[in-house]
Structures are given as C-alpha cells and as structure tokens.
Amino acid sequence: MYYDPIKKTLGQVFNRTPWLRRLFYYLLDLLLLRTWHVHRELRRWAKGRTQEPLNILDAGSGYGQYTYWMSGLSPKWNILAVDVKEEQVADSNKFFRQIDRKNVQFAVQDLVLYQEPNSFDLALSVDVMEHILEDVEVFRNIHASLKDGGMLLISTPSDQGGSDVHDDGETSFIEEHVRDGYNIREIQQKLSTAGFERIEARYAYGEPGQISWRLSMKYPILMLGKSRAFFILLPLYYAITFPFCLLLNWLDARTTHDSGTGLIVKAWK
C-alpha cells in the first residue's frame, strides 16, 4: 500500500488552521509509538542543554511534528528541518511563521546529497532511512554535518517484522519502503563505516507496541486505502481503540525488549 497519498490527505485536513495543526501534532504524539521512544531519548539529550544556543537538523522532517516539539523545548535552539517534498516544506514554513517560532527553518534538501560540515549538535532521523536506498551516503553526510561530539538519533523498522514483514515471501506493508527493516548489527556497521565512533542500538515495538501499531496505524490505513469515506468513521474508531493504544504505548516505552519490529539507534561523532 502507498502511504503518501493518505498522508497528503491528512495534511490537507489539518493544515487549514494553526489550531488544527497543533491538534494534529498532539494526536500524533500520543498515537505513534515511535514518538514515545524518540521523545524519551530527546529528553535525555536535552537535559542541561536548554539554555545553550544549539543547532539541530531534522533530517527528513515529514509533517514537522518533531521540529515543533523540539522548538518548544528551548527558543535558543536553531532547528533546520529538511525534506524532499516541496509542498510539505512550504506548508511547514507557513505554519511556523504563523505561530512565531523564529528558531525554525524548513528547506528542500535531498539527504543523499545534503551536507553542512561541522554545523549541528544533534541530527534526528525518524522513519526516514527505510525510504532511502543510499543509506551509507546519508550517514556519511550527517556525520560530516555534525560537530565533534554531536549525536544522531534514528528511529527505523527492524528486520524482526518491521514494515509488517515476517517471512521471506512477504513484502513491505508500506510500498514506499526500499528495505523491510535493519538488522541491528547491520545498521551499527553502516554507521561505523560512515565514521561514527560510539553507537548504541536497542529494540522498540515489542509485543505491546506491535499490537498498538496494528490498532492505531495498520488497520486504519488499510481501510483508508480502500475508501476515503472511512475518514468519517475515524473518530468513532479511535474513540474505541485509543485508550488501549495509549496503555500499550506506555508499556512498550517502559520495557526493555529482546526483540522488536523497531529500532532506536544513537550514534556520536
């Protein structure tokens, strides 16, 4: 299934007013399990740094929800959010101007080509690398763009059932993915090849998270893929499933998993 058309439709609905977009971000933060894991790591990184004038790269910013969240932690942080989708970048720049977040700038960039040597204290890549074939080139560019001691934080599917692929004969649930998921040692090796010296990786989306993902993402996307009329029923669907998803997300984010369909990776220059 192609996910981008559904994402575009959602964007058109929630881009109508700044208030709706803020609501959209808030709902994504609650519903998407990866956000729970990413926010947890960002809080750890941000501890003691909110008064420092730091530079951050959101590498593959999508809707811009992570840039929004980080820009609210400290007005002293300058955030550059890049993406290949021109319309999405334009919408995001308009929104952030409307809410007067002057420490944020969105730009159209291809991560395979983009490099800004020794510029950033932190780089964030959330559900991006599974879309890019030339992943080592991207890791090299981000490594070059980080300052010494800078950190890259990655969230991406694993090869333990990421993209809902569990057998050799299956294909990714999301057709825009160029890989079904990373082996945990594979991504560590690729980051090492790109120049990163210290790398930590752990599994996310254990059993609670996998159930939550199906309830909160897979089933609604499948139904929306068949008919946009399902948008009318979405509020009722989430009214029933949302409390269960919140509990499952909470459990997953506070559990150490021996395996999982997602990976959270940190790498330092």
UniProtKB/TrEMBL annotation:
GO terms for biological process, alphabetical = methylation
Occurrences of domain Methyltransferase (ranges): 54-158
Q: Which superkingdom does the taxonomy of this entry point to?
A: Bacteria
Q: Transmembrane segments in this chain: where? A: 229-251
Cite the entry's keywords alphabetically: Membrane, Methyltransferase, Transferase, Transmembrane, Transmembrane helix
Gene3D superfamilies (UniProt xref): Vaccinia Virus protein VP39 (3.40.50.150)
InterPro entries documented for this protein: Methyltranfer_dom, SAM-dependent_MTases_sf
List, alphabetically, the SUPFAM superfamilies matched.
S-adenosyl-L-methionine-dependent methyltransferases
Pfam families, per the entry: Methyltransf_31
Q: Which GO terms describe its molecular function?
A: methyltransferase activity
**Protein name, entry field:** Methyltransferase type 11
